[in-house]
Amino acid sequence: MTDLGRMAGSFARIRTVTLSVAALALGTGTAAWAGASLRPKPEVTDVEKYCSTEQQGAYELAEDLHRRERELDSREHAVAAQEAEMATAEGRLKSRLEELEKTRKELQDLLGQADAKRDERIAGIVKMVESGRASAMAPMFGQLSDELAVAVLDKMNRSKAGKLLAALPPARAAALAQKMAEPIAVVVP
Question: What is the C-alpha to C-alpha distance for residues 157 and 168, in angstroms, rounded to an integer?
Fold first, then answer.
């Protein structure tokens, strides 16, 4: 080998050693590879690797918008479910109100029938009392409840009602006349 060949080989070895020393000094050689497992390497996404800062910002904004869109979709589904539940409850409520209204009308009809039957019975008592003499009817009439006695007196002929009251004991006649003068209580359905 010539001197020139030996010098080229020496330069190559020196260059390799110099590069190895430089790599060790900079931390990029085998020592750096050995220590790489000790330090966590930050994950680099494709976006960070291949995009500029503006593009990365736009990508992050798009990701944020997609996340918000998913949140809004889930909220929309929740609201739709609540609306469906409310519609179901409203339907049940309307059905129940219709049942209650039907029951109320039935009760009003029954009360109307009971009132008509009561009025019919009072009319029978009025005929019976008016057909008899006041002096003969007074003892029986005096035993009636105040409510029934007032109802009968209200439906009687005024002159016959006056004769009947005159035949009653004064305290009882005064009490019945007082009740007849009281205002009638009106029940609002």
Answer: 17
Distances (CA, A) of 165 to 83, 93, 128, 169: 69, 55, 16, 8
**Same domain flag for 21 and 48:** no
Q: How far apart are CA 186 and CA 189, in angstroms?
A: 10
Residues 93 and 55 in one domain: yes
Q: Give CA–CA dist 79/59, Å, rounded.
A: 30
Structure tokens at 127: 């005929």
Are residues 158 and 129 in contact, defined by beta-carbon separation less than 8 angstroms?
no
Tens digit of pLDDT for each residue in 71-126? Answer: 999 999 999 999 999 999 999 999 999 999 999 999 999 999 999 999 999 899 88
87, 92, 98, 99: CA torsion to nearest 10: 180
Rounded to two decimals, the pTM is 0.47
Count of structural domains within the chain: 3
Quickly count: other Cβ atoms within 10 Å of residue 130's Cβ.
17
Residue 168 CB-density burial (10 A; 0-12 exposed, 13-18 middle, 19+ buried): buried
pLDDT in tens, 134-163: 888 889 888 888 899 999 988 998 888 888
Domain-located, residue 186 = no
Angle between helices 146-155 and 53-131 (to 10 degrees): 70
User: Does residue 74 fall inside a structural domain?
Assistant: yes
